[in-house]
Amino acid sequence: MTDLFSEQAEQQLRREAPLAARMRPDSLEGFLGQRSLVGEGRLLNESIERDAPFSMILWGPPGSGKTTLAFIIARSTDSHFVALSAVSAGVKDLHKATSEARDRLGMHGKRTILFIDEIHRFNKLQQDAVLPTVENGTLTLIGATTENPSFEVNNALLSRCRVLRLEPLAEEDLASIVRSALEDDERGLGGLEVEMDDEAVAHLASVAGGDARMALNTLEVAAMTTPRGDGRIRLTVKEIDEALQHRSPQYDKGGDWHFDAISALHKSVRDSDPDGALYWLARMLIAGDDPLYIARRIIRMSVEDIGLADPFALTLSTSAQQAVHFVGQPEGDLMLAHAVVYLATTPKSNAVYAAFSKARQDAERTSDEPVPMHLRNAPTRLMKEMGHGKGYKYAHDYDGASVDQEHLPESIKGHRYYEPTDRGREEKIRAWMEKMRKYRETE
Questions:
Q1: Pick from 91, 126, 142, 226: most CB atoms within 10 A?
Q2: In a domain? residue 365
């Protein structure tokens, strides 16, 4: 009777589960997206076909299919499946799972797949608890994470798992998932007589941002809250937007989304694309990123990618940072926009950045070499008698305030670091440097 009641309870939970959970496919044939992983002849497809699951970390954004893939692998291979959530599980749960996996393998010869959702939430001790059984093959680990496993998963555990990157679902895949849910009588909304025109389906697929869970949850809310007309539920773009309300952006201010966005902003400025720069600036600000962090990075852009091609870029960027700090938001957002457009549309040069990098390398390699005698300070008579400053030529005593004397240690004598470009103000600097070199050569 217990088994009967358990089965009935499970069926009831399945019926009352959210639409996204009910529509989860049972096999790769019904799985949409991630063709580079599950397509014909691809890694996961071959693994399932050969009944040879392996330990892996599924890394991807919400709603991209990580949990679904784990369940499909478990159902499609001859394995016992144990699912834990890093939000609620602890070391005790992990020890129990690994101990039972060991017994199961020894007594029945049946392997175990341990699925850990949000594995990035486990600390080092918790991750270490499963390491021995993963290493000796007692169980197969499938971890799911939205965070970069390079930063969130122990190197020891990471080295024993394949990291598989999942991408946000394409809009056409999301549209197919939505239509499938509308037509499915058993698991979906087919029995509710829900109608949805192509424009509304395309709109939902677009605003879901590659997240199948969001698309299906929004669809379910829209269907449940829209009044029937003529016995049917008709969903348009209006009903979808009302169900969606305000969609929180997929953005982690301390994770990959944050660093990828600032990288996109920086590269848009470097490539002289003001439209791209404005877009990524807006994305970061909408997501609630720290405007002063953005301002600091803008200052960095002004010296790394513009430099002396337009020295005013640094002045403007610093002024923008001060203005944002003084005025606050939302008014300060426009000041950041002013700065990134200026930086994107002004001449570019990384000559100083590259020069300093080369000079630093030489400085680190020759850090023990003494300062040449003629360049040394000589504030006392004793130091002068020891030769400090001897032979130094005071530039202002010479025509053009330029003299031909070496300013580097002997081992790197003649090294040149700064090579100005022919862009912006550096064109004038380049001409002046050439003039000074020729002048010194004639002395």
A1: 142
A2: no
Q: Which of 2, 59, 390 is nearest to 255 (CA)?
A: 59
Nearest-angstrom CA–CA distance, 142 and 140:
7
| Assigned token pair, 441 | 């050569």
Same domain, 178 and 159: no
Neighbours of 306 (CB within 10 A): 29
What's the whole-model pTM score? 0.64
| Domain that includes residue 420, residue range | 374-441
Residue corresponding to tokens 């807006």: 282
Tens-place pLDDT, residues 21-64: 899 998 888 899 899 999 888 999 999 888 889 999 999 988 89
Assess whether 68 and 119 both reside in one domain.
yes
- Within 251-378, residue ranges assigned H as helices are 256-270, 274-286, 291-301, 312-327, 331-344, 351-365
CATH code assigned at 223: 1.10.8.60
Query: Is residue 315 domain-resident?
Result: yes
Quick one: pLDDT band at residue 109, thresholds 50, 70, 90? confident
Residue 54 and residue 139 in contact, taking contact as beta carbons nearer than 8 Å: no
DSSP string, 152-173: HS-HHHHTTSEEEEPPPPPHHH
Residues 271, 179, single domain; the answer is no
pLDDT at position 279 is 93
Q: What is the tens place of the pLDDT at every residue in 217-261?
A: 999 999 988 888 777 899 999 999 888 875 555 555 556 678 889
Please indicate whether residue 385 or residue 220 has the higher confidence score (pLDDT): 220
Contacts of 404 (CB under 8 A, 6+ apart): 440, 441, 443
Residue that is last in its domain, among 244, 278, 301: 244
